[in-house]
Design goal:
The complex is a heterodimer of chains A (about 525) and B (about 70).
Chain A (H helix, E strand, L loop, with lengths): L2 H25 L5 H6 L6 H12 L2 H14 L1 H12 L5 H15 L4 H9 L2 H33 L6 H50 L2 H7 L17 H12 L1 H4 L1 H7 L5 H32 L11 H9 L2 H38 L5 H23 L5 H14 L2 H9 L5 H19 L11 H19 L4 H21 L8 H4 L2 H8 L1
Chain B lengths: L2 H29 L5 H27 L6
Classes of the chains: A mainly alpha (about 525), B mainly alpha (about 70).
Chain lengths: ~525, ~70
């Protein structure tokens, strides 16, 4: 059987699995808004972890990390992984604080959460615009990436426009039909698939070549790839910037935030936070190694050509079926982010725009309009993907910076009672202006510090300064902080020596009291 | 949440973040000679991941109530 035929069969089987899961999820999803948007706040351990992890891992891992490791060695990958391994799971605690309040008051989107926390429609609109503006390029790269992958893997038998259309239609179907449940179930399968592919590739490539020792020996001619460079992006300024950008990004992305508040319980969310570092290592280390090995196995690739290095190696060294598996893995990692992004955009449009300003608060209407938005957004995205837009990939890479610039407000809003709407609005505007100006090259990267550093610095200073200089918002803050204070009061009491420090004593009770607060 | 719990959790976070920066600097003389560079660095990350699990458990235990609901 030819490789193209095998790739096509693999793609068809993958699509069939996605459609099957979408149908199953649809059969278990009602037209209730919490059910459609949040899977009835019922995502459990591994599905929750896979939904969050799969959503957060984009094609950047398989293409960008491998490509940058090919050109720059281990530096970039290790620098980014350093930020992700410990600090990123802390976002799950931030998510837990949001989860408990969102469950108490029935919030579904981050926009309505922060709008109510700060009692400001203006802030809500501002956040909505930022979230949408930075998410759209990401969705677009998903369609473009999927189309290009299908074209490349089938040797052109499936043209780009058909590949992109297939990705948009499949994602559209299971997102439209199953909502959060559909995307979470498919994400679980997709995460298992792309992690399995990377694990297989990183074991089989050295096995075929006679061991890691031989691969390492081949690399001695390129010592710069094996040592961590302290110049360029690996320098102090670059490392600090990336550390800041990626540390809490799971909390800064609206489509991950929504998955966090879809957790069934705080315990499920905590499990995800602790399993996250392991999942990162299992995914990033193979991508880094394959990229570095690729530099000695297939030398001479220029620029973005190296982004496909994992698939070039597996295509040349491993059996055809694994090459077909590579396409499935790539489609999996692309779709697992794209579906969450499109569902969140339609969710925010439906609840934060249509329901809020057209006063259609009916559950069925919200779900119906969200489903229409899913299809409309995908149709528009697909149409735009057919145009030649080279800057969209740069913009998508920069989107992390745009989201990270919102940290001062997103994190300050859940920890700082004194924070108010004036500080939040001023911070969002200032931070976004600073990062966009940096992207456009309006100021130099002093000491290698990237726009994310300056945006965060400016956003934090303005947030604190303006909040302190303007009147308090005690009532709006109390509504949220009283819930968190009750939770922590109960935690302190239940785990004090007088309470006997019994694990069961704090079980349920703290959360129950917080819910009643 | 008591002050002690918040301070303890903050201290763990600070130590773990500091390790991310101290680790590569301490490893630099070992990693630079190339041959053992990648295995050494990846082993360090693996152990950092294992330590992260313990540290996260401790941080979450200190600030995050265990719940079934």
């Amino acid at each position: 059987m030819s490789q193209t035929a095998m790739v096509l069969i693999g793609a068809v089987l993958f699509v069939a699995l996605m459609v099957f899961l979408g149908r199953r999820a649809a059969a278990r999803t009602s037209s209730d808004s919490e059910d459609f948007f949040l899977a009835n706040r019922g995502l459990k351990r591994f599905v929750l972890l896979a939904a969050i992890f799969g959503t957060n891992m984009s094609a950047f891992v398989m293409l960008g990390v491998a490509g940058s490791s090919y050109h720059g060695g281990v530096t970039v990958g290790l620098m980014l992984m350093g930020a992700l391994v410990f600090t990123m799971p802390l976002s799950f605690y931030f998510g837990y604080r949001c989860w408990i309040v969102a469950k108490r008051f029935g919030y579904i989107t981050p926009v309505e959460f922060y709008r109510e926390r700060f009692g400001s429609d203006g802030l809500g609109i501002l956040l909505f615009l930022c979230f949408v503006a930075w998410t759209i390029p990401l969705v677009l790269t998903g369609v473009v990436g999927g189309g290009r992958a299908l074209q490349s893997f089938t040797g052109g038998s499936v043209p780009y426009w058909v590949g992109g259309l297939a990705v948009a239609v499949v994602v559209g179907y299971y997102t439209w039909a199953g909502g959060m449940k559909g995307t979470a179930w498919t994400n679980a399968a997709q995460t298992a698939l792309f992690m399995a592919f990377l694990a297989l590739a990183v074991v089989l490539v050295p096995w075929v070549l006679g061991g890691t020792g031989k691969l390492g020996a081949q690399l001695t001619g390129q010592p710069q790839l094996l040592a961590r460079s302290w110049d360029g992006p690996g320098g102090f300024g670059g490392s600090l910037s990336q550390f800041l950008a990626f540390s809490f990004i799971a909390f800064g992305l609206p489509y991950v935030w929504i998955r966090m508040i879809s957790a069934r319980s705080g315990r499920d969310l905590r499990f995800s936070g602790m399993a996250y570092p392991v999942a990162i290592i299992l995914t990033w280390v193979p991508a880094i190694l394959l990229g570095v090995w690729g530099a000695s196995l297939i030398p001479g690739l220029v620029g973005p050509e190296a982004d496909s290095i994992i698939f070039m190696i597996t295509g040349q060294l491993l059996p055809s079926w694994l090459s077909a598996f590579g396409l499935i893995a790539l489609l999996s990692i692309v779709m697992s982010s794209m579906d969450a992004q499109i569902l969140t955009l339609s969710n925010m449009l439906s609840r934060d725009v249509v329901a809020r300003y057209l006063r259609t608060s009916n559950d069925k209407t919200q779900v119906r309009s969200a489903r229409v938005f899913v299809l409309a957004l995908l149709a528009i995205t697909y149409g735009v993907s057919l145009m030649d837009l080279p800057a969209v990939f740069d913009l998508a890479e920069f989107a992390v910076t745009g989201f990270a610039a919102l940290y001062p407000v997103l994190i300050g809003g859940i920890f700082w009672r004194r924070a108010n709407k004036w500080g939040a609005i001023a911070s969002v505007i200032t931070a976004q202006v600073v990062v966009v100006a940096g992207y456009l090259g309006a100021y130099p990267a002093l000491g290698g510090l990237q726009p994310v550093f300056w945006g965060l610095l400016a956003g934090t200073v303005v947030f604190v300064g303006v909040s302190l200089a303007t009147p308090r918002q005690d009532a709006a803050a109390a509504r949220f902080h009283d819930v968190w204070d009750a939770m922590h009061r109960r935690l302190s009491v239940s785990s004090s020596p007088a309470a006997g420090l019994q694990p069961g004593a704090e079980t349920k009770s703290s959360e129950a009291e917080a819910m009643k607060a | 949440m008591s002050g002690n719990r918040a301070w303890a959790a903050s201290a763990i976070v600070l130590v773990m973040v500091a390790l991310q920066w101290i680790g590569p600097i301490l490893l630099r003389p070992v990693a630079e000679p190339v041959v053992l560079g990648v295995p050494t660095q990846l082993t360090a990350y693996f152990f950092y991941g294992v330590i992260s699990l313990v540290a996260l458990w401790a941080v979450f235990r200190l600030v995050w109530p265990s719940t079934d609901e």
